[in-house]
Amino acid sequence: MKPRITLKKIAKEFGVSISTVSKALKDSHEISEDVRERIKAFADFYNYKPNSLALQLRNQKTSVIGVIVPEIVHHFFSQVIDGIEKYANEHGYSVMVCISNESYKKEVSNISVLTNGSIDGLIVSIARETQETQNFKHFEDLIKDDFPLVLFDRIIEDLQCDKVIIDDVGGAFQATEHLIDLGAKRVALLTTQDYISVGALRKEGYLKALVAKGVTIDESLIYRIEDNKNLYEQIEKVINVPNPPDAILAVNEIYAANALKVAKERGLAIPEDIAIIGFTSGLISEFTSPPLTSVVQHGFLMGQHAAELLINRIEHTAPEAFQKEVISTNLKVRKSTINS
Amino acid sequence: MKPRITLKKIAKEFGVSISTVSKALKDSHEISEDVRERIKAFADFYNYKPNSLALQLRNQKTSVIGVIVPEIVHHFFSQVIDGIEKYANEHGYSVMVCISNESYKKEVSNISVLTNGSIDGLIVSIARETQETQNFKHFEDLIKDDFPLVLFDRIIEDLQCDKVIIDDVGGAFQATEHLIDLGAKRVALLTTQDYISVGALRKEGYLKALVAKGVTIDESLIYRIEDNKNLYEQIEKVINVPNPPDAILAVNEIYAANALKVAKERGLAIPEDIAIIGFTSGLISEFTSPPLTSVVQHGFLMGQHAAELLINRIEHTAPEAFQKEVISTNLKVRKSTINS
DNA sequence: TATAAACACGAAAACGTTTGCGTAACTTTA
DNA sequence: TAAAGTTACGCAAACGTTTTCGTGTTTATA
């Protein structure tokens, strides 16, 4: 790579001092018009751009925000990143993305790499392993230093920082209510292990709706999918049984799509024999047949809000109270629940 | 945010010079064991980490690579980013992601922001608008400065830099061949406008296969989807006609899934009346019914290769010849072409 | 005991930038 | 013509780090 042109080199070229060049390029009236114009022309010709590192070091501000997500190949997370990037960009920030890969260790190392001065703030959705082991010291350390931090989606309730979450309880409530209103008596829940915060919250909404509708809770209808085992087989055990449920609420799109597949293979009519709803942010639900009724999560919006909270936190030193924003979901009704 | 601890502050604390502290923390034998250990304990207690900006400035190396993609909410691109991030991380680099949003202007500004000293190299897939207008000056400028640059997927053939592409021609050839072998006489092509490089290449593979199989080319079976118009309606005009094609090759998953939908709504049997194949890297094809036979693109692999090329270029100053790597596709046969 | 070697640290430059302040030289004012 | 003001630039510090070289003090060698 060719060495970049610097103030020093321009100064040498003109036999003036570095500060003269700096001022000339900034159109300072301190510099005579003649010298100023010649320096500007020269700099322009060589496409001078101030070295960002030097500026960042001097100004103690990088205008970069870090983002750590459990994975990026996931419609929801890429939507959130998209939202973050958009808002950040509009406000003069760039985005540095790291992937924890659901690993505690990688999350810690990501944070360590990012918080060595190269970013002004951090947006994180917590890795599965971290949620499992409940070791949050790396976040507590950040908070202790008042480092600007925003948690989204997979959050830790007790941490003193800004947060953005989906209305998981409300979304699950609405979906379950919809299923019961359509006549379902035995609504199964396909959820994650309890330590995943969003899974737990969606279960909460599901249970609330049952109670509200006067349906007795049947623990045997709650299935906690294990991530390291075969998904399809686990879902078969839900549907491919003597007395399958007459409705299913799945906490994500993949579970829902697989449930639909198994049900169809078993010869069940959808939605007549079994109605299915999934949480979603992807495109699968639209293209299954029948298309899946979905609890739509607005990832892009979530990203924008997270970025907004973070940038406010970075730029307003006044220590405002920490916010917790809740992004509403909405129920997109398709033919997996109503066939008309 | 609390001010971070620096060498200067530690030095003041111990009444020694900055260089002594620096050396002590690096376990230099120049510093007496007593002082060394005390300084290290102190630094450890206050969780000292060298300021990355200062190091980057001094070493003239950031260990960050920039990535510009047209969009991130797209399974293929997020897979590539995932691959880049993985390889980069394993080799001590971080990743800064920018999104051009298919806009020429944003692409230019992204490059401008990134190449002001804050990254060591750049990986780009070109925006649609840039491909359309054919204005490549921003890339030529980079190349003129020998700035490490790798183009992937949407590339510019004439540019002197490393490139990674999918075997678009081969993938389309194989898919078309498959359709013809199954008895198709009138294979339609659902492609993009010609200026999109991958669309053009896939058309080339399609045409090659027709020629190889002795099928006469029928230009009226080639449909160039326009991005700003309604997708569904455009696809209806392909299938919902008196004499629809008996097979379709779509250059992406969304086109294919919509074609499937339209065909089913028209009452066509799949694959008996009409067989469908789509290029893909997402999950939709797996969950349609019937599932779609797909030309699978290995985005993750592509990302890894792009990162490898870039990092080699960054670290080996010896000006090796520019490489053009081709990632093979493979045909995943599902029931939209063979029902058995 | 004089000299050489080892030890333990500090000074300063370098990376590239901005900016407050100082100061010559020149111009205006009284 | 002396005092004051203006013009046009340079100096130096600051951001935080690493590293080469220099140097004073102590210890070992002949």
From TrEMBL, chains A, B:
<dbReference type="InterPro" id="IPR010982">
    <property type="entry name" value="Lambda_DNA-bd_dom_sf"/>
</dbReference>
<dbReference type="GO" id="GO:0000976">
    <property type="term" value="F:transcription cis-regulatory region binding"/>
</dbReference>
<dbReference type="Pfam" id="PF13377">
    <property type="entry name" value="Peripla_BP_3"/>
</dbReference>
<dbReference type="GO" id="GO:0003700">
    <property type="term" value="F:DNA-binding transcription factor activity"/>
</dbReference>
<dbReference type="InterPro" id="IPR000843">
    <property type="entry name" value="HTH_LacI"/>
</dbReference>
<dbReference type="InterPro" id="IPR028082">
    <property type="entry name" value="Peripla_BP_I"/>
</dbReference>
<dbReference type="Pfam" id="PF00356">
    <property type="entry name" value="LacI"/>
</dbReference>
<keyword id="KW-0805">Transcription regulation</keyword>
<keyword id="KW-0238">DNA-binding</keyword>
<dbReference type="InterPro" id="IPR046335">
    <property type="entry name" value="LacI/GalR-like_sensor"/>
</dbReference>
<feature type="domain" description="HTH lacI-type">
    <location>
        <begin position="5"/>
        <end position="59"/>
    </location>
</feature>
<keyword id="KW-0804">Transcription</keyword>
<protein>
    <submittedName>
        <fullName>Transcriptional regulator, LacI family</fullName>
    </submittedName>
</protein>
